[in-house]
Structures are given as C-alpha cells and as structure tokens.
C-alpha cells in the first residue's frame, strides 16, 4: 500500500512537471510577442546585463545583506531562467529522443509507401496505407528497439550527457515501449467502441477506424508469434546444422 501511494505521488509529480513545461512554453511565447513590441529592447537588455555584472562584483566585494538583496532582485529574471533550464533540459532531451525514435519507427514504412505512390506499384487506399504504417511502425518499435536506441544515442551524444542517457535507458525500454503501445490501443478501443455504439466514427471514416483496429490485431498476433518463437525449441541455425551433419554423414557412409 505504501509503495502504491509512493508511485501514485511520483506520477502526480511527473504530471505536474509536464504541466509546468507546457505552461513555460505558452508563457515564453507570450513574452516573446511582448518583447517584440518593445522599443530599444537590445539596448535595454545590454544595460540590464551590464548592471547585473556590476552588481555581482559589488556583492562579491562588500558581501553584505543589502548588496545581496539588490543583486538577487535585479538578476531575478536570470535566476528564473536558470532554474527553468535545469528542469527543462532533461525533459527536452527525453522528448527529442522520443521524437527521433518515432521518426525512426515510421521512416521505413513511410518511405516505402511514398515510393509506391511515386512508381504506382500497387493501388492502395488511405485505409490500407494507414494500416501498413501503424502496424509496421509498432512492430519496428519492438524488433529494432536496440538498434534504434544506439543510432539515436549516437546522433545525440554531443548534446546529451550521461544523466540524460540514464533517464532515456530507464524510461524508453522495450517493456515501456510495449506498455505505451498497448495503452494507446486501449484508449483507441475505448473511444472506438463508444463511437461505434453511438453510430459515429473516430476519424469520420469507418475504413480508417477499421484500419487502426486491424493494426492492433496484427500487433497482438505478431507479439504472440514472437513469444512462442522464443519459447519454441525450433531454431533455424540448429536445423541447418542438422542438415549439414546429415549430408556430411551420408557422404562419409558412401
């Protein structure tokens, strides 16, 4: 019970952090629009920067309560930006990794679909293309998880430190990816069933709804096959070895 309460509190804290990040984004957009309308903004910023530097040396020289209050009051915007950056940077690093991961999952099927549209190999409807894209993307996210992670970590290694890597390794594991896929499908199924009972459509197209639903069934079947294959005693390498040994033994008998 204590662990459940602890995890629930941690979940609420993570939600609060994400809400804070969204609020910072909207506030930053508002401030940028406000600053763009301010006259002589660069001159004001330069004067403020020089004042902060001067007050820092003044505070360092006298080191008393008055200079400390004056310094922190004038430099308060910079301190706020510093605190926000310390909170945002790890989250932005994880979000950047997630962005590249999703792109990596859908890049291959999306590229093949684009080539098909260009060369007209097959005539595919929007529903079929959606089914192929979602099914392939989810399967690639599981099958090529390790390879995608290595490539993305290599590409972002210069802008991420070991702390970000630890967060990413913990958060974006194969099990967590599966959980997110199942959760997304669960939410879709709930909405789909409600809309279906009400005689409406989630995408305003029954065919697209069916494509997403069928992609989930395909993913379930794929994961079941993957689990059974891991538990199965059959291995292609062993079969080839047995065939080779059989041929070799036959040659020896001859």
Descriptive account of the structure:
The chain is mostly helical and 254 residues long. The protein has helices at residues 2-36, 41-62, 65-74, 76-119, 126-143, 145-155, 162-171, 174-197, 206-231, 236-253. It starts with a helix and ends with a helix.
SSE diagram, text form:
Blueprint: H1 2-36, H2 41-62, H3 65-74, H4 76-119, H5 126-143, H6 145-155, H7 162-171, H8 174-197, H9 206-231, H10 236-253
Q: What is the oligomeric state here? A: single chain
Termini gap: 72 Å
**Any low-confidence stretches, pLDDT <50, length ≥5?**
none
Radius of gyration: 28 Å
Features:
254 residues; mainly alpha; 10 helices
Question: Gist?
Answer:
86% of the residues lie in helices and 0% in strands. With 254 residues, it is an all-alpha fold.
């Amino acid at each position: 019970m204590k662990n459940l309460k602890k995890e629930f509190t941690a979940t609420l804290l993570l939600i609060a952090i994400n809400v804070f990040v969204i609020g910072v984004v909207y506030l930053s957009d508002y401030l940028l629009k406000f600053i763009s309308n301010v006259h002589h903004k660069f001159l004001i910023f330069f004067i403020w920067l020089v004042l902060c530097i001067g007050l820092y040396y003044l505070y360092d020289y006298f080191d008393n309560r008055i200079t400390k209050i004056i310094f922190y009051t004038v430099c308060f915007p910079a301190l706020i930006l510093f605190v926000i950056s310390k909170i945002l940077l790890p989250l932005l690093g994880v979000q950047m990794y997630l962005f590249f991961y999703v792109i990596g999952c859908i890049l291959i099927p999306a590229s093949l679909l684009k080539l098909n549209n260009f060369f007209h190999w097959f005539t595919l409807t929007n529903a079929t293309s959606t089914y192929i894209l979602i099914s392939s993307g989810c399967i690639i996210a599981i099958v090529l998880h390790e390879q995608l992670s290595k490539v993305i970590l290599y590409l972002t290694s210069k802008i991420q430190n070991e702390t970000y890597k630890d967060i990413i390794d913990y958060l974006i594991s194969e099990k967590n990816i599966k959980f997110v896929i199942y959760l997304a499908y669960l939410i879709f199924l709930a909405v789909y069933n409600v809309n279906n009972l009400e005689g409406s459509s989630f995408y305003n197209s029954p065919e697209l709804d069916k494509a997403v639903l069928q992609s989930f069934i395909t993913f379930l079947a794929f994961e079941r096959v993957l689990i059974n294959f891991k538990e199965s005693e059959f291995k292609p390498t062993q079969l080839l070895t047995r065939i080779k040994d059989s041929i070799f033994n036959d040659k020896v008998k001859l």
